[in-house]
């Protein structure tokens, strides 16, 4: 159980740290151009925190814990990228299908970011705990 808690902590720190950078430098500028008038100011941190904590828990359940049992960071990378593509794709494609101002630029940017972010975070957590980071 301690190993899972450490895996969760390592993964959530990687995910949040990278996503803060990605949102500020990659995603926010694209969203500002297309739906800036809809963005909350200030950001509602409570719902964001709930999402992040649950998303990383799901990432561990479906991807990282099975990969850690096999001591396979590459498995975590690939599985994380698949999960990220599916989850971020669900959000982006639903918005693109239903919201007039949603753009293909938003879909492409956020889908690519979510895929890479989720895969890297899963890989990093498993690599750290399996001793294969170096």
Structural description of this entry:
The chain is mostly helical and 134 residues long. It has one domain (2-10, 46-130). 84% of the residues lie in helices and 0% in strands. It has four helices and no strands. The protein has helices at residues 2-35, 45-69, 73-98, 104-130. Helix 2 (45-69) crosses helix 4 (104-130). The two termini are 25 Å apart. The model has no long low-confidence stretch (mean pLDDT 97).
What proportion of the residues is helical, as a percent range? over 70%
Biggest sheet details: none
Treating each run of at least 4 consecutive H or I residues as one helix, how many helices? 4
Could you tell me the radius of gyration in angstroms? 16 Å
Instruction: Estimate the mean pLDDT confidence.
Output: 97
SSE topology string: HHHH
Sum up the overall morphology in one term: elongated
Low-confidence region ranges: none
Which structural category do the helix and sheet elements fall into?
mainly alpha
In whole angstroms, how far apart are the ends? 25 Å
**Fraction of residues in β-strands:** under 5%
Instruction: Say how many strands there are.
Output: 0
Total domain units: 1
Keywords: Membrane, Transmembrane, Transmembrane helix
InterPro entries: DUF2177_membr
